[in-house]
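Researcher: Please translate sequence to structure tokens.
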Amino acid sequence: MNHLVKQDFIERAKDINRFHVQQLKDEQNWTIQKTANALNRSLGSVSQDLLVAQWCKTHERQLKTCASLRDALKWIKSKQREMRLITGD
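Model: Translation complete:
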């Protein structure tokens, strides 16, 4: 059953993305590693959150049906695979 449920991981991803984008505007040489350090998070977790935030721009409704960050990442990876198959990349 696909129903919309509250997903804290989506809001966290959006918050981290907002922070990262603001830092990029303020400092030309800002990196994902600097965001991770500033937020006391791992580089991998910040990268995952930024990926989810990007996909939320066009697929938020679908991501909100995912029960967890892990499920959301699996869904994104499957869509990326589909796109590669379609485009032949």
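Researcher: Any highlights?
Model: Residues 8-87 form one domain.
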